[in-house]
Every structure is written in C-alpha cells, then in structure tokens.
C-alpha cells in the first residue's frame, strides 16, 4: 500500500522519527509505517423494529419481526460515531547510528514500546 495518502501512517512516522532521533547515537532517522488501509468507521444508524402478528394455519398466531436499519446522515454525510485506525502491518526504521548493536537494540525497544504490539514486524536498518 502507498502511505502517501494515509494520514494515520504519516503521523506515526513523524512521531517515530522525532522520538527515535533523540535516542543517543541514533543520528539521522527515517521511518516508514505500512498499514492495511484507512481504518474503519462505525456509523450511526436509525433502527426501527416492526412486529406483525397474523393468524396462521390451524388458528395459530404467527409473529414476524423485521428490522429496518438506516444510516443517519448529517448534511448529506453519514454520521460517524467513532473511527478505528488502520492496522499496522510493519515498520522500517533507518538510522545512521544503527550500525552500533546497542543503538539498534535501543531503537527496536523504543519502537516496540511506542507501538505497543510485539506482533508487528519491525526492521531497524543502518543508513548512510
């Protein structure tokens, strides 16, 4: 995915670069965050439930319920209750000081702490 239009990924990249650039020995830092898209939004709905009772075969009453779910709009746009950010697929950090193993480890631990998910693949590379 191209993150050029992904504001969420760009914001994380900027924050990572700012924080990681302060790590002793890191030098110049660049970060790239790959995501699975733009995330999802939970829309507001107007839900109307209708119940109809009819006489069925053998004089038994049969009750049927239907639910109509309509998106609530505000000035022609769907009303959004909340937004879920996209899932981070991976992070690459390039730092001029990452050729030092202790700096590389510090950068890795910093990214893991900031992201808060140990399952996300992270690569720390030495740059020029």
Cα(first) to Cα(last) distance is: 26 Å
Question: What is the CATH topology of the largest domain?
Answer: GMP Synthetase, Chain A, domain 3
CATH class of the largest domain: Alpha Beta
Order of helices and strands: HEEEEEEEEHE
> Counting H and I runs of at least 4 residues, what is the number of helices?
2
Helix content: 10-25%
**How confident is the prediction overall: mean pLDDT?**
91
What Rg do the Cα atoms give? 25 Å
Provide an overview of this structure.
- By secondary structure, this protein is of the alpha+beta class.
- The protein folds into two domains: 3-39 and 85-126, GMP Synthetase, Chain A, domain 3; 42-80, no CATH class.
- The chain has two helices and nine strands; from the N terminus they run H-E-E-E-E-E-E-E-E-H-E.
- It has helices at 7-20, 101-115, and strands at residues 29-35, 40-43, 45-55, 61-71, 73-74, 77-78, 80-84, 88-95, 122-126.
- The protein has a three-stranded mixed sheet with strand order 1-8-9, with helices on one face. Strands 2-7 form a two-stranded antiparallel ribbon.
- Strand 5 (73-74) and strand 6 (77-78) form a beta hairpin.
- The longest helix is centred in the last third of the chain and has 15 residues, at 101-115.
- 15% of the residues are buried.
